[in-house]
Amino acid sequence: MTGMPSPVAPRILFIIDYFHRTGGTEMHLARLALWLAANGIHCEIVIFDMGKNELIERMRQAGVAVHHLPVAREYSPHALARAWTLARLIRRQRINIVQTYHQKSDTYGALVARLAGVRHIVSSKRDTGMNRRPHHFFMNRRLRFLFERTIVVADAVADAVVASDHLDRRRLVKIYNGVDSERFVPPDAAQAADAKRRFGFEPGDFVVGMVAGFRAEKEHRLLIEAALAARAAIPRLKLLLIGDGPLLPELRLDFGREDFVSFAGEARDVWNALWAMDVGCLISANEGFSNAIIEKMAAGLPMIVSDAGGNSEAVVEGANGYIIPARDLQALARAITALHADPERRRKMGHRSRQLVLENFSLEQMCLRHASLYRELCGGTAAAAAVQTNQ
Hints:
By secondary structure, the chain is of the alpha/beta class. The chain has helices at residues 24-38, 54-61, 77-92, 103-115, 134-143, 155-165, 189-198, 220-230, 248-255, 270-274, 291-298, 311-314, 329-341, 343-360, 363-377, 381-390; strands at residues 11-19, 42-50, 65-68, 97-101, 120-125, 149-152, 172-174, 206-211, 237-242, 261-265, 279-282, 303-306, 321-324.
């Protein structure tokens, strides 16, 4: 057909501010890059602040080039020199799509990409922006013209960035996070009992668990205090807290003597830790669309989540869990008590959690939607459809 643009193969550069831990955004990007590379789509990653991380090594082993380009303050002579290095990389690798994560990448990184000649620049908004400062909103509004599309991980994130950054809603693309539903699976009875033993729990213990970095917005202290309140009705209630972060030493000092709280640190195999849980929680005050929630759901757990960000787009109130107001200790204690009191309801909720993941939040679906967007931007709408048909 004349007049139609010829499809151009996507060559993608992801730019991200920091990559230290195995948190939600880091895990998302690693999974996406590995899938793209396995499906023949060229992608590379530039990290402004990089730490040692097994995800980085895994991507490099799979052939994804990961570049550390240290940029501390983006408005400095040093950053100008780094901009030149970044622009040269973009031109040398014939990058035609740049996707940015976090604030520095959305401003400094995107501007360098445009000056280097990249036409297709995409921002990935992962949360509602609660922790951003007024000058961030100012810069985002001034530079929003750089972005052809903005990926949002939930409707709540879309509403937030339209309000704060004055984005055109017609340029937003919603792509939910995805979880590997073949790796994250429900345990059988023996596997669940074995997992509990490895974490020091007894078979009859009622284990409520959360996987989250120990930062203020994740509300670990609130969860511990709610568990203390619920223990009057549930003497064998235990908490399993997976993760690391700046608040972990403080909470260990305050609650380390409590025999019902297990601070397990980072877990190499998170799926195995989930098998020790009877109920999964995420009660943070600020979220986008949580990988931790859908991983627990894939493992067949009933959920208790705060009404923050896209949590209510994953958990269906009364069907696979409870949605409580953020920072509501009493509502959290009541939800824990209600789930303990009704094992059959827990079982049905856990089954529904697994179904929802398979229907809406698989890793395959997430990656296919990204690939479709990239091919569409490069003039390959028909090719995008073919990719989805062949997968």
